[in-house]
Amino acid sequence: MLVEIAWLIGGLLLITLASDWLVDGASALARRFGVTEFVIGMTVVGFGTSMPELVSSLFSALEGHGDMAIGNVTGSNICNTLLILGVTAMISPVAFSRKNVKVDIPICIAATALLMVMLYRWFAASEPVMLSRVDGIILLVCFTAFMIYSFKTGKTPETEKKEPLMALWKALLLTILGIAGLVIGGKLFVNHTIAFAQMLHVSDAFISVTLMALGTSLPELATCIVAAVKKKNELALGNIIGSNIFNIMLILGVSATATPLHVVSLTRVDLGVMTLSSVMLLTAAYCFKRYKLDRADATFYLLLYVAYVVWLFMTATAA
């Protein structure tokens, strides 16, 4: 048991260090290439923190567990928005720019809506059915267009380029080490947390709906907390929006292109909460403090996430 605890603590320490490296490296890259921290958070950081979901979803799909691949993305997006952005805003309120509200968040909502249409076989089915290879290719084409658009429209105004620039090699090294550390640290934490919980005879149902769901989102959580502490909330918001879009367009696009993903146990409630969480990003811009995700919004996000986890647990124990 002591060995598992030691590995668990080691994983957490690595995640903490790696998230610090990633935030510093990504911010330096943003300044050097003249793009906003939001765009770097939405692309470079979003891709890095989505690596655990990409690997687990792709292998699940190739092993014939397409339902797990879709469920992984669904649960991750819910956790990203309700839990991680909620925790981030509790530490430091997150401001939305007009572009976030008019372009970036609507793209995230559109990606979610496209996934819903595909899962319900383009309105032909009453229950979620599958993602085909054609669906996967469409998602990847949309992802490519999204990336091109992000870099073309994410330039920093000349008046903002005044801070000293970190050496390119150092910024790249910090970013790469940060991504690698998050992936490895997250894997260590998840594996040894599950092993520790099993030693305490905690049920598999409880482990799957709590520890696993949180574990795959640890990179996003750690990165956003560090970004909030360092007052780089633009990067944190970009990380969440980018991760959600990456999860749908890239991860499910790659997985479905490799092999069709059939839905078995995913419910309307799961998909409904994911859709609701993406829409709540937009409504938060107009509630309480305009164009800001404040602590009142964050409290509601966290309460909704707790309610969803309780529902998951009750469903799992009743099955």
Number of domains: 1
Query: Strands of the biggest beta sheet: in what spatial order?
Result: 1-4
Which band does the percent of strand residues land in? Answer: under 5%
The CATH class designation is Mainly Alpha
Give the name of the CATH architecture. Answer: Up-down Bundle
Radius of gyration: 19 Å
State the order of secondary-structure elements, H for helix, E for strand: HHHHEHEHHHHHEHEH
| Oligomeric assembly | single chain
Backbone structural class: mainly alpha
Cα distance spanning the termini: 30 Å
Reported by name, the CATH topology is A middle domain of Talin 1
Shape field: globular
The amount of helix comes to over 70%
How large is the count of helical segments? 12
Could you tell me the mean pLDDT? 79
Largest sheet report: 2 strands, antiparallel
Low-confidence stretches: none
**Total number of beta strands:** 4
Task: State the CATH superfamily name.
Answer: NCX, central ion-binding region
Could you provide a short overview of the structure?
This protein is mostly helical. It has helices at 2-33, 37-49, 51-62, 66-91, 98-119, 133-153, 168-199, 204-215, 218-229, 233-258, 268-283, 295-318; strands at residues 94-95, 130-131, 261-262, 292-293.
Question: Could you characterize what this model shows?
Answer:
By secondary structure, the chain is an all-alpha fold. The protein has one domain: NCX, central ion-binding region (A middle domain of Talin 1). It is 78% helix and 3% strand. It has twelve helices and four strands, in the order H-H-H-H-E-H-E-H-H-H-H-H-E-H-E-H. The chain has helices at residues 2-33, 37-49, 51-62, 66-91, 98-119, 133-153, 168-199, 204-215, 218-229, 233-258, 268-283, 295-318; strands at 94-95, 130-131, 261-262, 292-293. The strands form two sheets. It has a two-stranded antiparallel sheet. Helix 4 (66-91) packs parallel to helix 11. The protein is globular and about 55 Å long. The two termini are 30 Å apart. 46% of the residues are buried. The mean pLDDT is 79.
